[in-house]
Amino acid sequence: MSSIATSWYAIKNVNGFSRRFISSLAIGALLLMAAGIAIVIGSGCTDQKKVEEKGCIIKAGTVEISRADFTRELEIKQANYPYDIKDRPSEYNAMVLDLVSDLSDEAVLLAAAAAKGIDVDENALDVAVADFKKDYPEDSFEQMLLERAISYPAWKKRLKKDLVIRKLIMQDLVASQEIHPRDMIAFYDRFGGQADAQNNNNPKMMDEKDLVLKLRMEKSQDVFGEWLQGLQAGYPVHIDKPALSAFLINAERQ
What we know:
The protein is mainly alpha-helical and 254 residues long. The protein is built from twelve helices and three strands. The longest helix is centred in the middle third of the chain and has 27 residues.
């Protein structure tokens, strides 16, 4: 995907996850490393027919993005562009295809999470919502959503998807990274003389558990592209191209 940190992610944190999580983990970087990974467009007649019959534009595994969902996502994305972007068909179409790329990768990740039984219950979601909103005084959170033309239910639904994806990455990718004593020694050698004593990244202030987690995160960034490609192979994306074309502007007619 060209950038998973699109308009949705911009209203949460730097990378779309809780501030408490961001303070200790650079998980957003993992998602951003998906840039450039190709979308697998289904060519099988049976799969494509199923996509069209169900009225969805994008499908990966059990995850489907309906035309209505795509329309809402596009409206939100478009709100972050100049109001007259439709007057420039090539730019508008590029924006639409960028959204297709983002949602396709998201569908793959959510499909993998569903297959592995990874979910976020309502209690965990409510905790995440409260944690996010506490940094917004009075009604500034609601004002932020209003300015971006996003309803609270839609934002909460998006937050849950982000949390599910984060949980998938942590359980399926980060936890699988092996850390050896030599990795810890190399880390200390790298940052021991540079870290600020008031910075949480200072190795002298990190206990072994935090250090191991940080090292696993670093290793995960190195293999994220390969990991995602494996998921894409297992949960290929099928796109209803005729339905998608309805969202594109035919530049030849302009």
